[in-house]
Design a protein that fits this description.
This is Zinc finger protein. InterPro entries: Znf_PMZ, Znf_SWIM. Pfam families: SWIM. It comes from Trema orientale (Charcoal tree). The protein is low in regular secondary structure. The protein has a domain of 72 residues. It is built from three helices and five strands. The strands form two sheets. It has a three-stranded antiparallel sheet with strand order 1-2-3. Strands 4-5 form a two-stranded antiparallel ribbon. It is elongated.
């Protein structure tokens, strides 16, 4: 006998009482009828216990537990054994250079052919000497420009700088410079 069972929340299932199968597969896997098959069995006024797998019947249960299983005493009542306590093996320094990185477990995820260094993409390097692209000062083919001489400001006797320069948006100070060091 095959039935089509519609559920409000699940959808619909096909139950075959002769084969003991339901499309939800709960009956097939466990051997105990699922809710869909129980609905079909109750609809036909049949005995539900006849559709349960024979491994769940009372006689199989009694045969499984017929031999007596005796309990054992707790660890406090176990026989004490005298032996030398186990110790860790002695530490031996291995020859060669020690490993820099830790050994990864086999189940750890590892990327293939990756580096930890980020690459510069879409960045044009410019030389600070000549201003051209694709090289720096060390590899510049032109002779290095001389740096402008550094000037040391002369501070007045009172150790204060001179007044600010005139102008509405000025943030500069007038400082006397000397080329003598």
């Amino acid at each position: 006998m095959a039935f089509q069972v519609r559920c409000f929340h699940d959808g619909q299932y096909i139950v075959n009482l002769n084969k003991g199968q339901c499309t939800c597969r709960k009956w097939n896997i466990s051997g105990i009828p699922c809710s869909h098959s129980i609905a079909c069995i109750n609809d036909r006024n049949l005995d539900i216990y006849k559709y349960v797998n024979h491994w769940f019947h009372r006689d199989k249960y009694e045969k499984a537990y017929a031999p007596v299983v005796y309990g054992i005493n707790g660890p406090e009542l176990w026989k004490k054994i005298v032996h030398i306590p186990m110790e860790a093996p002695p530490f031996k320094v291995q020859c060669g250079r020690p490993k820099k990185l830790r050994r990864k477990e086999p189940d750890e995820y590892q990327l293939q052919n990756t580096t930890t260094k980020l690459k510069k993409t879409c960045v044009v390097i410019r030389c600070s000497n000549c201003g051209q692209a694709r090289h720096n000062v060390k590899t510049c083919p032109y002779p290095r420009k001389e740096k402008a001489p550094t000037y040391v400001p002369i501070v007045s006797q009172t150790n204060t700088l001179h007044e600010p320069a005139e102008g509405p948006k000025s943030c500069c100070f007038r400082i006397q410079f000397s080329t003598k060091a």
